[in-house]
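Q: Joint fold for the lines below.
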Amino acid sequence: MNNTDLKLLKEIAGINGKINGAYNIRRNGKGIERHVTDNINIVTKKDKPGIDIHVKENTQNETVYIPVIITNGGIDDTVYNDFYIGKNAKVTIIAGCGIHNSTNQNSRHEGIHTFYLEEGSQTKYVEKHYGTGEGTGDKVLNPITKIYSKKGSNMEIETVQIKGVDSSIRETKAVLEEQTTLSVSEKIMTHGKQYAKTIFDVELNGTNARTHVVSRAVAVEDSVQEFESRVEGNNLGYGHVECDAIIKDNGRVTAIPAIIANNVEANLIHEATIGKIAGEQLLKLMTLGLNEKKAEEQIISGFLK
Amino acid sequence: MLKIKNLNFERDNKKILNNINLDIEDNKFIVITGPNGSGKSTLAKIIMGIEKQDSGEILFENKEITNLSINERAESGISFAFQQPVKFKGITVYDMLKLATFKNISKDEACNILSKVGLCALEYIDREINSSLSGGELKRIEIATVISRGTRLSIFDEPEAGIDLWSFNTLIEEFKKLRKEIKGTIIIISHQERILEIADEVILLKDGKIDKIGKKEDIVRCIFENNCTLKVGDKNE
Ligand SMILES: Nc1ncnc2c1ncn2[C@@H]1O[C@H](COP(=O)(O)OP(=O)(O)OP(=O)(O)O)[C@@H](O)[C@H]1O
Ligand SMILES: [Mg+2]
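A: Joint structure:
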């Protein structure tokens, strides 16, 4: 691996030297390194590009890294990764895609991730998107995440995309059975002419299924973001979606909420706030001696922290 | 140290501040009091640069600051604790104290600052400054940001509001200490008799005008006993 590879890996997966745990590193459309452990097996798919990740039941606090890096222009990579999380297993999955494109051709990565969460399992999924390179070629990322959670399982998703990615459509679909929880925290910042869209589609099917989605977006310059969410409550359960966006310059954000209650016991909330930085926040920081620009940076970095 | 000359501020055809003249000396404890809506907060905000006067001049330590921005005034040695603390998203108490002190202070140092306003620090240090904090907690954190700057002039807008009695006493002690440390002036906007008591001078504002300036006893007599011997700006003239 060269320096660009290592830099991207550090940025998207916090990998710095030796990796503790199972991993599969994919570069420019091919798997280049893999390591499995007693509890976590990674198998290459036979029918299409991608891998199956099997986490044994009762696995305790292990981590799997599955970063994807693209360092050439003109790459169009679609990959299917399936995760089988065994009963009562507790695992962290660090995914993410880093693109370094210094060419004039577009690079595109589409990751289709499907999670089969067995009873009582706990999964944390961290995904970071990152793009660099001076070329005019677009860096395009379109991840799709599908989640099927069985009784008593829970999943926590953290996604981060701060600048660097020209176009992204992120789609998350989940079907929750009884006593399950899905919490999602998403942070996106776009600038220039970037475009980012997020689609959440959650079905609360079992009793006491819960979901909490928090999306924080900052759109500056001429960038555009869309946030579409649909939470359907089919049983006693709870759904809370919060979309909070800061816009600046010509940045534009659209939030399209849908909450659908098909059961009187479904308790669904959608909150969306879009606006420029609150004037009084700027004023307060300026009274501490920060100039307007610094104050604004602090407010945005806090917001996206 | 602070001179205000012919200051006017009018909005919606209402004279919110009507020709204010003030000469505030160094190393003093000044309390501004007066009815709701009399213009106290507006005056403080104009001193800090948050609101802009229609006319008038402000001098701080013999330098004209009338046209300086908020942050320039902050740098020159003025601090202001808001009547209504501002809430943030994602900025923690610790972050805020680092910003206020302009230093990468340790958590221990941040805790020390918080203990001055009677907050059990470690519980609070990593909390976000948002509505999950109670009104009194937000207020105390707001006061802490000003105390931690230790500037020559510190203005507190109704610091007692929402603060319980026990903390109120420690707060008064802190104000006294602060004044010793900064060897500067503290202006407190307040309706509290206990705070009026510790003042070197009380300024009574009414309908955007300075109604009286004097010692606490005189002002109290003026307000409550209708037995007034003071005239406008007595001391300043
Ligand atoms: N920007 C503005 N536009 C219109 N009216 C204003 C503006 N700023 C202040 N006012 C009005 O000026 C008056 C004085 O307000 P200010 O907040 O200074 O009062 P205060 O003395 O601090 O009152 P309180 O004791 O309630 O805090 C009020 O009537 C207020 O509504
Ligand atoms: Mg006020």
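Q: Anything notable?
A: The pocket of adenosine-5'-triphosphate (ligand 1) is lined by residues B 11-12, 16, 34, 36-42, 83 (CB under 6 Å). Chain A has two domains: 1-154, 177-305.
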